[in-house]
Amino acid sequence: MPATLLSTRDLDFLLYDWIGLESRLNESGLMDRESADAYFDLSRKLAEDEFLTHYKASDTKEPWMDADGVHVLPEIGKALTSYKELGLFGASFSEDLGGMGLPFLVTSASFVWFVAANCATVGYAMLTGANARLIASFGSAEQVEQFALPQIAGDWFGTMCLSEPQAGSGLGDVRTRAVADGQDALGDRYRLQGNKMWISAGDHDISENIVHLVLAKVPDENGVLPEGTKGISLFIVPKMLPDGNRNDVIAAGLNHKMGNRGTSNCLLNFGENDGAVGWMIGESGQGLRQMFMMMNEARIAVGFTGAAQAYRGYLLAVDYARERLQGRHIGQRGGDPVPIIEHADVKRMLVAAKSYAEGSMALCLFCAALVDRPEDSEASALLELLTPVAKTFPSEFGLAANDLAIQVHGGYGYTRDFDVEQLYRDNRLNAIHEGTTGIQAQDLLARKILHSDGAGISALKARVTDTIRRARHLPKLVELADDMQSALDKVDSTIEALKGCNPQAQIDNATPFFKGFCVVVVAWHWLDQALCAANKNCASEDDRNFVQGKLAACRYFFECELTSVTPMLTFVASGSDAVSSISPDFF
């Protein structure tokens, strides 16, 4: 077992020095720093003692099916029972709903320990919390009591059922149908028929019930389904009905992914017999809008997952590089081998991984802090803009950090004896979870920038400009502040150039724009972290090394990553059709 999953020192720095969690706690009156630290320590200990301990086993002993359904490694259920007993399923829910009422930032800082230890196991809890929150937000009082409260308590688990075999991410092509079947105390009742693919936690034997949230369409009087996404509604479809009978929902098969192997991933058939019983949430045709609440929460959770897995891989690589003796300094032929951490190329890989992992963690914690400010319109606009970034940068650059961790381990990194190869496989899934990078790119550019009221991008520019202004007061950061301003100006001019293009041309190069935008956002967070670190009082050599490490990672990210933004955005602003003009016949 590694000495640590994450850096407690860095989390304390990000939470208390950078974000100012202590003052936020004092404002809320919910808990003080001592209570928060105890909560984080409890999370760390549970993650290490009961989640990390079956990390390898859950990868090798995958879920399996027999006549009784889907089964998973028993240790997964035991760990989640402990998670439940500590009230962690409902930590972020109000006390009125049986939760603790803790700020999202606090519960997120707890969550990262579990995804670092075993993302496959805590994935069941993440989906359950998001499912319950959606029902609590849009469901009737009866639906909340029947279906949300047992999930908040951790007695039942939940899923989100969007994709279908023939549709994938094209949700407008959903063909699952829901036919009206009267009313009861839980609302408008329907019978559902259809298939859902890639359903994480779709079936298993570790909870009393599974509450599925299912996107489906209600046919018209002629039995014809509405076209497009506007005809999609949302339904609560439990595995076990309120009367104790089994619903018409079965797992037709298991998908065996390259990572997250402990999370059962299912093809679910709804309504093979008389139709699966479900209850509509809210009004007809509002399903996708409602589901986006769950998806956005899940996107931030995916970002935290990528960040935590990158961070753990980075720390494992640092430990290995300190211990592994190999080679000698340039010009030396004799003497004992030196730790590989002294070699320039190993240091290059480690500082790159550090900049990606710590930058990802800062980004996600920043967004979690925004979630706690729903009354602040500027914070809400900024959160909406940055949610795709928080999901994608850790998914892409976190994976790059895991790739570097493998390389630092040399040949050993490619074997199952070391956790870095499993971390890489687990993290690789995050680039497709809750929407691919390309989908996030189009969402950010088209919906949140070009065709919005501009509140989000204005809020971002104001905050980045403030960081630049403050950084210019520190001689060691003046040059970086100037680079940050140039990058911000480049984003601005690229957006203006795209506004003059037709709609198709605007999104042709959305992904390279998005990647450049992500780097700019994380560079801003690095500059802001550097400011905070440079002003920190250092009482020990360890403190000084920590601060210098922050400044070194910031410098690396600016000199080796931010410099890629200008050519990337120049390509986008040119309106190039280098990609869009390619005929499918050319491949």
From TrEMBL:
GO terms for molecular function: flavin adenine dinucleotide binding; oxidoreductase activity, acting on the CH-CH group of donors. Residues 462-580 form the Acetyl-CoA dehydrogenase-like C-terminal domain. The keyword Oxidoreductase applies. Residues 285-446 form the Acyl-CoA dehydrogenase/oxidase C-terminal domain. Its cofactor is FAD. It comes from the Bacteria. Keywords: FAD, Flavoprotein, Oxidoreductase. Residues 160-270 form the Acyl-CoA oxidase/dehydrogenase middle domain. Pfam families: Acyl-CoA_dh_1, Acyl-CoA_dh_C, Acyl-CoA_dh_M, Acyl-CoA_dh_N. Residues 74-152 form the Acyl-CoA dehydrogenase/oxidase N-terminal domain. InterPro entries: Acyl-CoA_dh-like_C_dom (IPR025878), Acyl-CoA_Oxase/DH_mid-dom (IPR006091), Acyl-CoA_Oxase/DH_mid-dom_sf (IPR046373), AcylCo_DH-like_C (IPR036250), AcylCo_DH/oxidase_C (IPR009075), AcylCoA_DH/ox_N (IPR013786), AcylCoA_DH/ox_N_sf (IPR037069), AcylCoA_DH/oxidase_NM_dom_sf (IPR009100). Belongs to the acyl-CoA dehydrogenase family. This is Acyl-CoA dehydrogenase. The lineage of its organism: Bacteria, Pseudomonadati, Pseudomonadota, Alphaproteobacteria, Rhodobacterales.
